[in-house]
Design brief:
Length: about 250
Amino acid sequence: MIPATLPERILFYFGAVLYFGCAALLFVQSLRSGADRRPRRALALILLMWGAAHVAFGLQGTAITAPACHPVSVPALLGGNVYVIISLLYPLELARPGWITSIRVAQLLLPFLVVTGIYLLVLGLSGESVRDLDSLASLLTHIAEFNVWYRIVLYLSICFYMVYMFMNTGVAALDADRLPGDPSPAPDHCRLLQLRIYGAVMLCISLAYLVTLLFSTPGSMFVHRALSVLLFGVVSLFAARRPAGMPAKTVGQP
C-alpha cells in the first residue's frame, strides 16, 4: 500500500462532490425538452463514472492500492480503455444527435473486448501470471513474456480510442463552410464550441493519463486527477449553460 497524502485525500473527496453534483445538475436539466437532453445525460454518465472512481480511492482511507501504481499496470490499462470509451459517448451524441444506440455502443466496445479477450484467454491457457513492473526498464527486461509485451497492445488500444475521439466527433462537419445557396441549416456554433472545449479537455487529460501509465509516480497521478477535476468542471459548466433549443435531427433523418 502507498500512503495517500492530505492533498490527495482532499482531491478524492472534492472530486467526488464535483462530479456527482455536476452529474445531478445535468440529469435534472436533461428532463426538460430541448436538443441537448441526450448529450447531457451522456455527460452525466461520464461524470458519475469519474465520481465513482474518486469514491473508490477515497474509501481506501490513507492508502492507495499498490498494483494500480505500477508502470503500465494491467488494471490501469483496462480501466483506461473503459474510461476513454465511455467518455466518447458525449461528443459522439453531441456531434451526431441520436448516435447512441445499443448496437453502436456494442460496436464501439467490440475492439476493446476482442483485445481483452485475447489477453485473458492466452493467460488462462498458458497459466502465466501477471508480473508487476517496477519501471519501464522492467518492461524491456521481461518483454519476452506475453503478459508483459501484450500491455503494449492494451496501451495502443487506449491510443486508438483517443484518436477515434478526436477524428470522428463531427467537429469538421459542424465547422465546414457552406457553399452559396446551400439550403442546409447553419452550423450550431454553441454546439461546435462545446465540442471544441471537450476535445481540448480530453486531449489534456489523455496526454496526462498516457504519461501516468508509463511512469505511475505519485506526482503524475495527482496531476492527472487534479487536471481531470478542473477541466471536467469547465466542460460541465459550458454544458449546463447551453440554452435549450429546438430538437436536433437524429441520425438518418433527411
